[in-house]
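Trying the structure run again after the queue cleared.
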Amino acid sequence: MLISGIFCSVAVGLVIICFIFAGSKYKLFIEENQADFQFLFLAPASLWLIDRTNLFERLSSYITPVQHKVAILYSAGKKVPQYTKMFMAQMISIVLLCLAGGSLFAVLNGGDTRFVVFAVVLAILIPIVSVKKLDEKMEKRKQDIIIELPEFASKIALLVNAGETVQQAIVRCTMMKADIDHPLYRELTDAVTKIKNGDSFNGVMEDFSKRCGVQEVSIFTTTILLNYKRGGNQLSLSLREISRDLWEKRKSISKKRGEEASSKLIFPMMLIFIAVLIIVAYPALRIF
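Done. Tokens:
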């Protein structure tokens, strides 16, 4: 009971102290960079703790890969440091919530230290899982882009072959699906906006390729930049060749996703089978 009480006091006291020192200092920062981050009610305390402990400087080697993933996933642009900070604040908020909640449950249950141990384990595992989730989101985003890219490349090839310039073709194809919430078209919409504002086409396409962070997009943009001045048949043929390769990759990803979906259904199907087996066998067992 004593250990749980001390742990509870330390955990809850830490949260309260962080909130007191944070005050309203981070209110505007959170409003501007909240994106889809969770546990925002604990964000001020977590952000103060990050600044007070110089966490970014101390863990720079670990935070840099996370920063790269956050930049790609959230299309952060100039907000990469802010979004990374919010992601780190989210993880610290989870840790604080686990420690404070677990210790509080321990006190309410007569000082059962198992709640404290469980809280500490969760506080270690959940941030690790959160970082792993970024990898899963990155892979899904990459697959989504590859699935949509061959169709986009085919349309560009058709329009260029019909006499339009590459810029006009990209703008037309992008605007057709500008209202779709898709990672490829989000990046393309940003690129089209820059083209309309008079930015260099080469610079816009290179920036688009970097923001996507997908090898297939890099090949697509490189092909366009190498051939767009020539235009006509040469560019159209190059895009069609790329499109054929991308369609094969799209088929492979679709097949893989289908297999994954089927494997996820095995467990529910087993439960249904067992339930049906019990329903059918129970009357027979009662007879005996």
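The CA atoms of residues 161 and 232 lie 6 Å apart. Worth checking whether this holds up in the mutant runs.
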